[in-house]
Task: structure prediction
Amino acid sequence: MAPHDIAEVYDRAIKLLIEKLQKVRFGACAHPRKSARRTRSGSRHIANDVKRAVWIRDQGQCTYESESGRRCEARADLQFDHEKEFARGGEATVDNIRLRCPGHNQHAAEQTYGAGFMKQKREEAARARAAAKAAKERASAKKAKASEAAHLQPHQLEVIPWLLELGCSKADSRIAVERCRDMADAPLEDRVKGALRWFGARLTRTVSYAPAS
Result:
């Protein structure tokens, strides 16, 4: 493949990537339809046709201008910002929505509501995200525990705490208790010993494959 062919391939790939990102970002397409979901008065939702119009009008660039008239050059991670704040009755219309980079969006909010208020809001949002993450992790752990309980029999589950107490990892313990699957009527001590045989067998395999010194 000639160098100019490679350049053409890269050029096409970049154009396709941009089109894909625009579709994800605000539903861009060759023949856009009017959004089926109309923005109700008082709604924060911004319709895709509004996003498209704003993006084209603002040329995919942050609209902030300094006192000297210099426009911010940021084109990445842009946000659709209400010029008249949503909390103050601003609607999600083409005339009231503009593109702003995160920094200048935050700057405008601090000018309107005060740096202290916005700091408090950021801290509240961070706490909410942390709480949501913790809740998700708890739900995931609960689901994993339920899946484990569904796979293992009660007489196997009873053995796991003893293996953990002996210093075995949870992952290894779940594998080891397969050794006592058919020992439902056996005493707990025998079931623990049966599970521990898995560790002995694994150690034997490790030693047998170890190179001679």
Q: What stands out?
A: Confidence is low (pLDDT under 50) at residues 206-213. The CA atoms of residues 159 and 192 lie 6 Å apart. The beta strands are 79-82, 97-100. The radius of gyration is 30 Å.
